[in-house]
Amino acid sequence: MNRDYAKYALRRVLQAIVVVLLAYVFTFVVISVLPGDPVTNTLRNPQNGFTEEEITRIVSYYGLDRPVHEQLWDSLSRLVVGDLGVSLRSGLPVTRLIGEVVGSTLVLALSALAVALVLAFAIGFGTRYLPKRGGQGLLRAFPALFLSVPNFVVGLVLISVFAFQLGLFRVIDSEGGAATSFAAIALGIPVSAQVAEVLIANLDHEAGQEYAAVARSRGLGRTRLFLRHLLKPSSLPVVTVIALTVGELLGGAVITEQIFGRTGVGSLVERSVTTQDLPVLQAVVTLAAVTFVVVNLVADLLYPLLDPRVRLAGGRSRGKAEVAAP
Questions:
Q1: For residue range 243-287, what is the model confidence (pLDDT) as tens digits?
Q2: Is residue 234 within 8 Å of residue 307, measured between CB atoms?
Q3: Which domain of life is it from (predicted)?
């Protein structure tokens, strides 16, 4: 198992690296085939205030006077060593610009994920043990409701009620703990819908299995039955869903940051789009691809460890986890 798992992990890591490189190449090609030369047009814009010497240095750095395939090779070479280029607006390294704001976005995304998991597991528990006529039916409708309401609507409602009317946080203090909490709630509520739907479906399935009936016949309490016998097998598909919702978290974080006036990757993207700072935009796309791939890679590597029913397919052309037949 250890040897098979090591081979499986190596294949998944290599696949993840290939995906990141392809995402970077795709972004580069899209920018390269745009009409005209957007990078040079930005440099030649009198409003940006670049001198001829600065323009020449930047053109030489990006190889804009050379064929596209050479520019791509140089760009990939810089990417491998962690060099994401230089901002066309500020002249600062892109890694520095992203490093200054990524922490705020990461805090928001992780907080929103925590909110989503708490809501999803609370809904899942309630659908098992609240009265069927009232509480269960209402809770089962929550995921559909959460999914139908965009996060920016939730954010505006939270700001209107808790900031303007109740004064629980100040909009001008967008980086404070209270403001971050409400921003995380706005982002986490829609994300929790998908997790809750999958969790409820799997809880219903596991509750009908023979081992659950045996545990109930032995007088096991509701909470212990839920935590010890139903939650773990039902949570395994949730790992996959969480990995797939990373894109929603990243995209939602950009919108939520704008609503709550937070300084993060969202504000950096907004400035870069407005000023056509293409190296920064390309770096942000690469960062999003890396984040998505890494999270899904972690989920793929955890699944065989968490579920003993999963076996690793062997052979040269097979490197995925499969559920063993009972």
A1: 878 777 877 888 888 888 888 888 888 888 777 777 888 888 888
A2: no
A3: Bacteria
